[in-house]
Amino acid sequence: MEAPAQPPADLLPVQREATLAYRAIRLWAVPLLHALFRITVEGRDRIPTDRAYVLIANHLNWLDSFAILASFPAEPRIHFLGDTTMLVTRKVQWALVKSVGGYIPVNRQARPDLVLFEQANRCLERGGVIAIYPEGHYGATEGEISPFKKGFAHFAVDNHVPVLPVALSGTKDLWLRKPIRLIIGQPIESTGQTVESMVTLAEARMRELLPPYHDPGGAKLLRRRLTHLF
User: Fold this and answer.
1) Does a structural domain hold residue 3?
2) What are the b/e assignments for 100-120, b being 16+ CB within 10 Å?
3) pTM to 2 decimals?
4) Checking phi first, is residue 93 left (phi over 0); if not, alpha (psi -120 to 50) or beta?
5) CATH code of the domain in which 129 resides
6) Counted domains in the chain
7) Which of 4, 182, 213, 217 has its CA 20 to 30 A from that of 48?
8) Is 182 in a helix, a strand, or coil?
9) Which residues pair with 81 in a beta bridge?
10) For the segment 129-171, what is each residue's pLDDT rounded down to a tens digit?
């Protein structure tokens, strides 16, 4: 049996403006996240609000994307890259993604994925934000990162936009009221950079930002359920 076809990328609008549905969801989702976890954000004043950029972060667990969305302003709109294979069989989730989330589809079978680059470039041209986990997978250990892949650097250099590094700490293993840190670095300008130099610079900057991890101890309520919620 053939797999369902992935929806055309143009069904997913990319834009600077946040949708009304997303703004409405933030009204209850952000307080909920802060009730479950003790999220602190450092360097919030470094977030560009007047231009497009590429956001990069280390990746530890399902909470990462939600913590970023809850900690960043609604605009410019953040668009995550993701495989739509699962979504196309689930109409409710697909409708939610289209109406609420900033989302750029990735076709892992296409080499190269020309639609991905077209959609990403369009997003940045319109003033949106692209969020990427350049390791390409969940990190194995808190406080460490794997070598970066080059995709984010292509987007930034080709579109002459900066890269904003965000270090996440505490999201690998989760429990109720666990301290979670987001550390936002200075934007890395792409002017004068090659793809290779941007990868090297961004990876070094992320290693500088990422703090050593220390288990905060205490009661670890709902640990298994929250760690494996998604």
Assistant:
1) no
2) bbbbbbbbeeeeebebbeebb
3) 0.90
4) alpha
5) 3.40.1130
6) 1
7) 213
8) strand
9) 104
10) 999 999 988 888 999 999 999 999 999 999 999 999 999 999 9
